[in-house]
Structure formats: C-alpha cells, structure tokens
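User: Good morning. I'm curious how zinc ion would be positioned relative to this chain. Could you predict the structure with it bound?
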Amino acid sequence: MSKTHWKKLTNPDYLGAYSIEDGRDLILTVRRVVQEPVMGADGKKEDCIVCYWVEPQKPMILNATNCKTIVKLLGTPFIEDWAGHRLQIGTEKVKAFGDVVDALRVRKKLPAAQEPPIPCADCGQAIAPAYNMSAAQLAAYTEKQYGRKLCAACAKKAKEAGKESADAQTDA
Ligand SMILES: [Zn+2]
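Assistant: Good morning! Here's the predicted structure, ligand included:
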C-alpha cells in the first residue's frame, strides 16, 4: 500500500483547510473546473480535478466526495454546468491515516441568496464590487469616508469634490 505524505494534503498552491479562518465558511463562485496535473509534495504529478473561482481565491482540488456533493447540489454531473454557481466551502473533521484531520468540504447546502443590492446614495444604482471590495464593503467604506453609501463612480466624484473644497478652504 502506498503512503501519503501529510504535506501532500496541504499544497500551498491550492485551497486547504488552512484557508478557512476561524471556522468561517467561504462562499465562492465557480469560474471553471478542469482536470490538470498537480504536483504533490513527493514531486510526482497527479491528475486532479481543480476548481477555479471568480473571486480572488486559490483554486481548490476537488476530491470525489466534494464532486459528488456538487453533483447533488447542482443536479448535473457536467463540470461545464458548474460554472457560475456559488458554493459554500468549510472544513470537516475526517479520519485519515489513523488520525483526525480537518478536510475541505463543499457544504451540502447552497449558500444563502446573495445580499440584496445596496443602492448608491447619489446615483441610485446598485453598488457593484470595486477596488477589491465587495458591494457591502464598498458601501461601508464610502459611508465612513463620505457619510453616505456610494458606488465606485460616485465615490470618485465625491473624492474629487472633497479635494476641491479642501483646496478652496486653503485658498480662502
Ligand atoms: Zn453612484
């Protein structure tokens, strides 16, 4: 029987149990799923099913358990049809190699519906994610910075307007 080095389970190029902070699940959107060779810690390449995300997050190696969960959740065994779907990723204690380890698991339920859109206080359009911030983060940031929830375009205008009034004050 061949043995598995524990380091093989914690490939830093891919999502791992270590990616889950404080037990908080990740909600990620599938960009594409491919089969590609993955270099193990032993230097040997092995074909794995790898899921890439829309979000800036490391790709995740999908084992059979997680693939089966996705098939059940999305109702399709075709990896092309998984793209665009959001998954909730967490950890679960599993017995492996006579030990209990944290393993990455696709949760057996789909993530809750996305947050309702947040309208921009200036133009009224839904705030879209920008500057590496989610819509909610951008809304919170602009509210702190400008006193109202703004989209990226209006935040830029508000920033320029703020600069002008600051210049005007220095001139006065
Ligand atoms: Zn706006």
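The mean pLDDT is 88. Helices lie at 64-74, 135-146, 152-171.
Let me know if you'd like a different ligand tried.
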